[in-house]
Amino acid sequence: MEPDEPGHEKMPWGEGERLQKVLAKAGVASRRAAEEMIDQGRVEVDGIIVREQGLRIDPENAVVRVDGIRVVVREELVHLALNKPKGWQSTMSDDLGRPCVGDIVAERVAAGQRLFHVGRLDADTEGLLLLTNDGDLAHRLMHPSYQVSKTYLATVQGEVHRSIGKILRDGVELEDGPASVDKFQVLEVDAGRSLVKVVLHEGRKHIVRRLLDAVGHPVTRLVRTHIGPVVLADQRPGTLRVLGRDEIGKLYEAVSL
Question: Which of 18, 36, 105, 162 is the most exposed place for a label (fewest CB within 10 A)?
Fold first, then answer.
């Protein structure tokens, strides 16, 4: 890459960090494998493919991608998945002394990490909550214009007929305007109750509960299982896990960062 190319500017001699070292520290590959990736044209910095070995970059500001997927190279960035238990508040503190997300991450906060939660779950809703100290990422993931999908499993009263899916996809008029789902699936029907899967990108308060209530099937249990590419899977309630590199890259990609 020539110094006068648009995109990443070469750093003065001795400053910054070599690209292959940055990739190794980010867990992408060993330095040797990272050098091969650079040779193969798989690495770009600030939108420009880099084939030059030993290029020095500023990890604080450079945007690095491998095979088109963003790699987080700033060491201080934190991305966590929490399985919020039922009955816990989605806040970092609670004036009434109720258990809250802040209790689970208290040690990280005490160590100086300022964590944002991505969207809230009401106290009775369980499941996936993302926590990060990247304010831009948190803001975009919550913003409706980026349409990041969220998946919920809901146990509801009554035996849900499959026609309900079309009604919810077409849209239902709520007190604060129309709302709809992206996907709806009846998973189980059993003796007066049903298990359904709801996928939507709406972020309004209690939106899943209100939608299902509006079509005559009040929710008795609600679990969020996915936010974009991140999956709750078999993570135990009340536990945290650090997101994997692929998950983080796909989250940034989903919100065009």
Answer: 162
Angle at 97 (CA atoms; ends 209, 137), nearest 5 degrees: 55
Angle (CA) 221-228-178 rounded to 5° is: 65
**Residue 7 CA neighbour count, 13 Å, CB half:** 14
The active-site residue out of 39, 67, 122, 176 is: 122
Please check the confidence at residue 3 and state whether its pLDDT lies above 50.
no
Q: Decide if 95 is catalytic.
A: no
Average pLDDT of span 92-104: 88
How many Å is the maximal CA-CA distance in the chain?
72
Cα distance between residue 77 and residue 177, in whole Å: 37
Query: Does 166 have pLDDT greater than 90?
Result: yes
CA dihedral 79, 196, 174, 218 (to 10 degrees): -110
